[in-house]
């Protein structure tokens, strides 16, 4: 979770309210007779630091347009300023329900994931608000993924771990891998060098330095959807993680990759995502649309630790239509990959 310092939080709130002013309700040529109530509320908070006037403006906007997602977002920001987490949850859920395909829903759902960690009471409110929306298929794509992430967090905070596991499965989280390696020494120079796992067959073992036994390919469980290389041999780098995915329906999916390490992700030998930590400051979270046929597919991740102590990796293959994942996922077995389904 990213916690903004107070000044940056104020700037972020101002930017969102300014955006709300431009997107919500009727517009006029200026802040006079034709301007929306949300615009005047944003002006009160951002320019005059008048929270009371901003609250009155947002309340009027909600009274006129109770389903306005941007007015609800403004109300949520004001509730956050007042440290009223329950009201913030209520307005964020309402914003998501009012516009499930609008970018405002992504903002609201991300914040709900953070609020779910505050207490079991907040977690229960978030689950009660989002569960009917997810079950009714109101969300699709990234919004559906984020809604389930918020519900996973809420379930964990409430101690309902079976529910959290079921929601991770619905999000297509990869919870089992085969790990092969290490295969090389240099995390940057060897990321582009090909090694046997990329040639189609997963080896039984990787060679070790002279005098040491080979490193066998081993199964690694990731019950919470995140795997780490902590505890792996420290004298080398470049690992491969492989999972076999069987899709019942096929179609369009959203591949999510979260890591601070350098990775190259491929499906059936085709590269779909790459992150080079050593060449800049790329995002640690990526979402890539992919189209896959029903049947078997091999998911392969080439991962290097480099100098970073953080080697965690999260991968999920969720359905773009927002339905629960139809993927059966297992750690790959050493040997040739099973014949993959033809490309769509």
Query: So how many helices?
Result: 9
The low-pLDDT segments are: 1-35
Helical fraction equals: 25-40%
- N to C succession of SSEs: HHHHHHHHHEEEEEEEEEEEEEEE
Class from helix and strand fractions: alpha+beta
List the helices and strands and how they pair.
Elements: H1 6-23, H2 37-46, H3 51-64, H4 69-81, H5 85-98, H6 103-115, H7 120-135, H8 141-157, H9 161-170, E1 176-180, E2 201-202, E3 205-206, E4 215-216, E5 218-221, E6 226-227, E7 239-247, E8 251-259, E9 262-267, E10 270-275, E11 285-292, E12 295-304, E13 313-319, E14 327-331, E15 335-336
Antiparallel strand pairs: 1-5, 1-7, 2-15, 3-4, 6-13, 7-12, 7-14, 8-11, 8-13, 9-10, 9-12
Helix pairs in contact: 1-2, 1-4, 2-3, 3-4, 4-5, 5-6, 5-7, 6-8, 7-8, 8-9
Primary descriptors:
single chain; 344 residues; alpha+beta; seven-stranded antiparallel β-sheet; four-stranded antiparallel β-sheet; 9 helices; disordered N terminus
Quick description:
By secondary structure, the protein is of the alpha+beta class. It has nine helices and 15 strands.
Q: Your description of this structure?
A:
- Strands 1, 5, 7, 9, 10, 12 and 14 form a seven-stranded antiparallel β-sheet that branches. The chain has a four-stranded antiparallel β-sheet with strand order 6-13-8-11, with helices on one face. It has a two-stranded antiparallel sheet with strand order 2-15.
- The two termini are 37 Å apart.
- A hairpin with a 2-residue loop joins strand 9 and strand 10.
- It is elongated and about 75 Å long.
- It is built from nine helices and 15 strands.
- By secondary structure, the protein is α+β, with helices and mostly antiparallel strands.
- Residues 1-35 have low confidence and may be disordered.
- 36% of the residues lie in helices and 23% in strands.
- Helix 7 (120-135) packs antiparallel against helix 8.
């Amino acid at each position: 979770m990213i916690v903004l310092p107070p000044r940056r939080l104020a700037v972020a709130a101002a930017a969102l309210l300014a955006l709300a002013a431009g997107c919500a309700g009727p517009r006029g040529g200026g802040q006079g007779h034709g301007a929306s109530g949300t615009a005047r509320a944003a002006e009160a908070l951002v320019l005059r630091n008048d929270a009371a006037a901003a609250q009155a403006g947002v309340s009027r906007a909600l009274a006129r347009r109770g389903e306005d997602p941007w007015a609800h977002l403004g109300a949520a920001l004001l509730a956050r300023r007042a440290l009223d987490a329950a009201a913030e949850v209520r307005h964020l859920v309402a914003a998501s329900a009012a516009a499930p395909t609008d970018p405002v829903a992504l903002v609201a759902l991300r914040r709900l994931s953070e609020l779910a960690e505050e207490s079991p009471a907040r977690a229960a409110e978030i689950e009660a608000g989002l569960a009917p929306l997810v079950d009714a298929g109101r969300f699709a794509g990234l919004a559906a993924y984020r809604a389930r992430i918020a519900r996973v967090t809420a379930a964990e905070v409430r101690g309902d771990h079976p529910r959290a596991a079921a929601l991770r499965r619905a999000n297509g989280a990869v919870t089992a891998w085969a790990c092969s390696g290490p295969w090389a020494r240099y995390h940057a120079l060897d990321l582009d060098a090909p090694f046997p796992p990329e040639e189609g067959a997963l080896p039984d073992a990787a060679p070790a330095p002279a005098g040491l036994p080979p490193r066998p390919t081993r199964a690694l469980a990731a019950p919470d959807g995140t795997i780490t290389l902590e505890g792996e041999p420290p004298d080398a780098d470049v690992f491969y993680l492989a999972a076999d995915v069987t899709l019942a329906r096929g179609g369009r999916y959203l591949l999510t990759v979260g890591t601070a390490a350098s990775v190259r992700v491929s499906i059936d030998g085709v590269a779909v995502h790459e992150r080079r930590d050593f060449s800049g400051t790329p995002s640690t979270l990526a979402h890539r649309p992919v189209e896959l046929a029903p049947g078997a597919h091999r998911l392969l991740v080439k991962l290097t630790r480099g100098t970073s102590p953080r080697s965690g990796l999260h991968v999920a293959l969720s359905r773009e239509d927002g339905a629960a994942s139809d993927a059966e996922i297992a750690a790959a077995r050493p040997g040739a990959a099973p014949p993959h389904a033809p490309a769509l």
